[in-house]
């Protein structure tokens, strides 16, 4: 009997449910939550669309850069065709347009902005070039262990059909060239290769150069004149990449000005 009573009480409690006042409060709370979360949700959606659009633009630019490296006949029309038929499109219905020249490729979404080849670190000419030179030097030294910097550079240049890549600063072109510090053959090659750039057609002017590529941070540095202004030249024949990096960051003229300053706003091309 007692058990039946208890069951009955429990059932009664279940049926009771909410009072009207409680319900109104619940509805009011839900209304507040919705009012707060909908704008947050919409904001997140827009952020997400923006991120997806940017990622898609990067995919397109990278695809075009790689296609162009592989195919010398690759044209702007080919790139446009890639852009229009790709699965990488704006998730918000934005329209993509293309800017194209010898040095860079830029895809712009009319809703979300631009992505250009120069902004993407991993497709930079210099970082590919130095990787290529390092691998070449390692292989070359296996067969020709006594060869020096000049000879390796010469053999490597043949691989590049006699043409170095180009660095453009302030509308002037410089040829990007590799350097191997082979004094100590016991040192790993990857610690002994770097890049510099000098005026075109100035092939044998020693190791005093206007620009050097610091592979430690992936940036170009320009040599300064004594007063720290750009347009100087400095020696880049260091022991290894670490001492080159050290010199780039810390070398000073007797005037106290830095001997190297970071170059911004440059372009590179193969
Ligand atoms: Zn977009």
Automatic annotation (TrEMBL):
The chain crosses the membrane at residues 20-42. Gene3D superfamilies: 3.30.1690.20. The keyword Transmembrane applies. The keyword DNA-binding does not apply. Keywords: Membrane, Transmembrane, Transmembrane helix. It holds the Pfam family PilJ_C. InterPro entries: N_methyl_site, Pilin-like, PilJ_C. Coiled coil: none annotated. Residues 146-223 form the Pilin PilJ C-terminal domain. This is Prepilin-type N-terminal cleavage/methylation domain-containing protein. It comes from Hungatella hominis.
């Amino acid at each position: 009997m007692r058990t039946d009573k208890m069951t009955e009480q429990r059932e009664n409690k279940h049926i009771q449910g909410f009072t009207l006042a409680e319900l109104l409060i619940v509805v009011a709370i839900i209304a507040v939550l919705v009012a707060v979360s909908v704008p947050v949700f919409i904001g997140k959606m827009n952020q997400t669309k923006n991120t997806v659009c940017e990622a898609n633009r990067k995919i397109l630019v990278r695809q075009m850069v790689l296609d162009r490296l592989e195919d010398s006949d690759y044209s702007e029309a080919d790139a446009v065709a890639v852009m229009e038929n790709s699965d990488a499109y704006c998730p918000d219905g934005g329209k993509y347009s293309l800017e194209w020249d010898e040095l860079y490729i830029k895809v712009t979404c009319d809703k979300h902005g631009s992505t250009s080849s120069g902004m993407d670190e991993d497709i930079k000419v210099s970082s590919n070039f130095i990787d290529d030179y390092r691998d070449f030097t390692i292989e070359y030294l296996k067969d020709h262990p006594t060869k020096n910097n000049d000879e390796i550079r010469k053999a490597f240049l043949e691989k590049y059909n006699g043409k170095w890549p180009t660095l453009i600063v302030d509308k002037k072109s410089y040829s990007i060239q590799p350097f191997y510090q082979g004094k100590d053959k016991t040192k790993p090659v990857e610690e002994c290769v770097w890049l510099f750039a000098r005026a075109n057609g100035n092939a044998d002017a020693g190791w005093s150069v206007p620009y050097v590529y610091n592979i430690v941070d992936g940036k170009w540095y320009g040599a300064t004149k004594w007063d720290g202004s750009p347009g100087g030249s400095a020696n880049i024949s260091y022991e290894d990449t670490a001492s080159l990096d050290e010199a780039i960051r810390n070398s000073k003229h007797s005037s106290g000005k830095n001997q190297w300053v970071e170059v911004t706003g440059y372009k590179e091309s193969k």
